[in-house]
Design brief:
heterodimer, A: 593 residues, Rossmann fold, 7-stranded mixed beta sheet, 5-stranded mixed beta sheet, 22 strands, globular, B: 191 residues, alpha/beta, Pyruvate-ferredoxin Oxidoreductase, domain 3, 6 strands
Chain lengths: 593, 191
């Protein structure tokens, strides 16, 4: 058997292939992106179709289409992506599926790179779609493989909920063989199953509810929920996914005698929970993020062992927010013993937040926007590298994909005297910006929309999108031109400028600044990391000319430092020339080399 | 030899920390040792702090426990100090003394002060300007593998496993210089 050192996400990709997936769809988002990337790498030798879709909803719809045509498909996204896909997700439980349909959702407890830490397990209960939660890369691979059979057995989509520490965790992973499966016939017309008009809804719902009962008992036999009852143990631990590893590690370190039930499936194995409740005086529940299991345990305990005390998030024994750790498990046990928990205070060094890269075209775009519309304008923002513009005071809101354009007219209807400038990236615009823009034009809003078109999905690792003219495999396709779309959304005034050319762009921007209606500015320039074209000629500061006005320092380029009351350009300079264009003293010069 | 070893690697986005972790992980596979690890990068590829944990012989948590790391490998001094709480008393700290400035450079602590903090936890400190050595070898980009070479002496893995891992992971065009850097680091330890 082949053993590799793999990222959880890579292990999932192998697992999907071992489950003989034939089609994969997704939209990039941390911590999920590496699954599709690995599938792309493995796609040729395994002849699977892999696609970066325009957004998560369309990705899910594609996967569903494959499934009801009899083939196996997977759909991959981050947790907030499921909000976008939730519409079809909910009803796909009613219709059921044909070929196995597996949805992989990567949650981000602690919100390391997300706008919230919502718990996707809630969606699984909401939709009545079964869910697996792996505790390690190896188990993630096994669950991914198994999910297809499970999905076909119950004719339901299946969800796998990963978290950052599984998706971005690493370990040795033993690969398996690709399971060959029987071919199902293709799309068969069956409106009773697939057309959810009112008369067909309740029968479908009934079927879905009947499936729940069968799944509940079937899940008891699965290997993903091992129960270890220890002799004379008074405490029982219930831990799901990665939290199981933290609890086991703590048990090993302290050599503690407690029983433990690992949860790897939803619905949870209620008979095993009952058994644990019957043999324990106290139950501790560890899970990330919501008290999903805990709430169910309370319900079961009422009938099984009302004297058993339950400790978890609801009574403050386990933190409600953020990911857990061995240290936090230890703290819960200490609190249970009545000991005070003291988290050793961690240093107070100033942080090193992420920042726009030196030479980033967004630096030019932000400078131009500030210079044209001023500080007092309102800048609804969006999700991407440009969210970092918050450090430059140019991003006033960030909630979800496409929301900047959507909320801008609302703000403008109240703040009539101010300019409202929505800022959105190219990939995000394709993902969720278009309906908002059409709505603004149709309903006669007065807003500016700045599309920061860096020709890629930069934040998540340079995935292509419809505006790039390239598909996931790297092959060429039709480029969907931003400018054409914007025009056909009903925008009268659309201009394209180069954010590196400051003076020229400023004069163009002045002309449209006071026009009524919806104005769109496309700042078109490839991401500095994408082009990898660090120009040989860099810039330096002639100290005799620099008057220390700090205008260049204020643009937010980390290649510009301020030392001894003068600007100084360090080795990070990429030679983009923005600083030279804005320097009032013309103190920046190109190096000769 | 104790085949368990918890390592925290700290630095700044772009320094190649993940590559170092991957080399160690790969070496564990060759020696048939269990291994766990995890990275915290998220938005950090844009020049933010990066920390990578790797646990040779690790069975459960991918994260190193506070105060339990055997080795702290810091490619940047402030990032080393930032992750000092992971290091156990008398653990090994290998620290590059060449700083990468933070945005408000006046808030960057003195290097000597940072090293003093580390010395409070352990006398086993190797601190030097490894950036300078990497430049001498030919590129700042081999800083990561050079420092891994120093560190390799204290890890329960064979020299040959590291070299094979480097050969299998590093891109062909950069292999020669990386092997040179690794050997330099490995021998530096004995100086």
């Amino acid at each position: 058997m082949k053993k590799l050192y793999l990222l959880g996400n890579e292990a999932i990709a192998y697992g999907l292939i071992e489950g003989s997936v034939l089609y994969a769809f997704g939209y990039p988002g941390t911590p999920s992106s590496e699954i599709i990337e690995k599938l792309i790498e493995l796609s040729k030798e395994n002849s699977i179709y892999v696609e970066w879709s325009i957004n998560e909803k369309v990705a899910y719809e594609n996967g569903f289409g494959v499934s009801i045509s009899g083939k196996r498909a997977c759909v991959i996204m981050k947790h907030v992506g499921l909000n976008v896909a939730s519409d079809i997700f909910m009803t796909s439980a009613y219709t059921g599926v044909k070929g196995g349909l597996v949805l992989i959702v990567a949650d981000d407890p602690s919100a390391y790179s997300s706008q919230n830490e919502q718990d996707s397990r809630r969606y699984s209960f909401f939709a009545k779609i079964p869910c697996f939660e792996p505790s390690s890369p190896q188990e993630a691979k096994e669950m991914a493989t198994f999910s297809f059979d499970f999905s076909e057995k119950f004719s339901l989509p299946v969800m796998i909920r990963s978290v950052t520490r599984v998706s971005h965790g690493k370990s040795e992973v033993v690969l398996g063989k690709i399971k060959k499966k029987e071919e199902k016939n293709g799309f068969v017309k069956n409106p009773f199953q697939f057309v959810m008009v009112p008369p067909y809804v309740i029968p479908a719902e009934k079927k879905l509810n009947e499936k729940q009962r069968i799944i509940k008992s079937y899940i008891e036999k699965l290997p993903f929920n091992p129960l270890e009852i220890k002799k004379d143990a008074k405490i029982g631990v219930i831990a799901s996914g990665i939290c199981y590893q933290y609890a086991k590690e703590y048990q090993n370190i302290e050599n503690l005698n407690f029983s433990i039930l690992k949860i790897g499936t939803y619905p949870i194995p209620e008979r095993k929970v009952k058994k644990l409740l019957e043999t324990s005086e106290k139950i501790l529940v560890f899970e990330e993020v919501e008290p999903v299991i805990e709430e169910i345990v309370y319900r079961i305990a009422k009938d099984t062992n009302p004297n058993c005390k339950i400790y978890g998030k609801l009574n403050g024994y386990v933190p409600m927010e953020c990911e857990l750790s061995v240290e936090k498990v230890e703290a819960s046990f200490k609190k249970l013993k009545g000991e005070k928990i003291t988290f050793s205070s961690i240093h107070s060094y100033s942080s090193r937040p992420p920042f726009l890269c030196p030479g980033c075209p967004h630096i030019g775009s932000f400078y131009l926007l500030k210079k044209t519309f001023g500080k007092e304008s309102i800048y609804p923002g969006d999700i991407g590298c440009y969210t970092l513009g918050i450090q430059l005071g140019v991003i006033d809101t960030t909630l979800c994909m496409g929301s900047g354009i959507g909320m801008a007219p609302g703000i403008a209807r109240v703040e009539k005297r101010k300019n409202v400038v929505a800022i959105i990236g190219d990939s995000t615009f394709f993902h969720a910006g278009i309906p908002g823009l059409i709505n603004a034009c149709y309903n006669r809003a007065n807003i500016v929309v700045a599309i920061l078109d860096n020709r890629t999905t930069a934040m998540t690792g340079f995935q292509p999108h419809p505006g790039t003219g390239v598909i996931a495999s790297g092959e060429k396709t039709k480029e969907i031109k931003l400018k054409d779309i914007v025009k056909s959304c009903g925008v009268d005034k659309v201009i394209t400028i180069n954010p590196y050319k400051i003076k020229k762009s400023l004069s163009i921007l002045q002309k449209i600044k006071n026009k009524k209606g919806v104005k769109v500015i496309i700042f078109k320039c490839p991401c500095v990391l994408l082009t990898n074209k660090t120009k040989k000629k860099k810039f330096y500061v002639d100290v005799s000319k620099c008057n220390g006005c700090k205008i260049c320092v204020g643009i937010g380029c980390s290649a510009i430092e301020f030392k001894n009351e003068k600007a100084k350009i360090n080795i990070l300079c990429t030679g983009c020339g923005i600083c030279a264009e804005i320097c009032p003293k013309k103190a920046m010069y190109k190096t000769n080399e | 030899m104790n085949k368990k070893c918890d390592i925290v690697i700290a630095g700044v986005g772009g320094q190649g920390i993940i590559l170092v972790a991957n080399i160690i992980g790969e070496a564990c596979i060759y020696e048939n040792l269990p291994v766990k690890g995890t990275e915290t990068h998220g938005m950090a590829q844009r020049g933010g702090s990066v920390e990578s944990h790797i646990r040779i012989g690790g069975l459960y948590s991918p994260k190193v426990i506070t105060g339990k790391a055997d080795i702290l490998l810091a490619l940047e001094p402030l990032e080393g100090a930032r992750n000092l709480h992971y290091l156990k008393k008398e653990g090994f700290a290998i620290v590059n003394t060449s700083p990468i400035p933070i945005l408000n450079s006046s808030l960057y602590p003195e290097i000597e002060k940072l090293l003093k903090e580390i010395k409070k936890i352990t006398p086993n400190l190797i601190a030097d300007d490894f950036t300078k050595m990497s430049l001498k070898i030919g590129s700042i980009k081999v800083l990561n593998v050079l420092m891994l070479g120093v560190c390799a002496n204290i890890m329960p893995l064979k020299y040959e496993s590291f070299k094979t891992a480097i050969k299998n992971i590093v891109k062909q065009e950069f292999l020669k210089i990386n092997l040179k850097a690794f050997e330099f680091g490995y021998n530096y330890y004995y100086k």
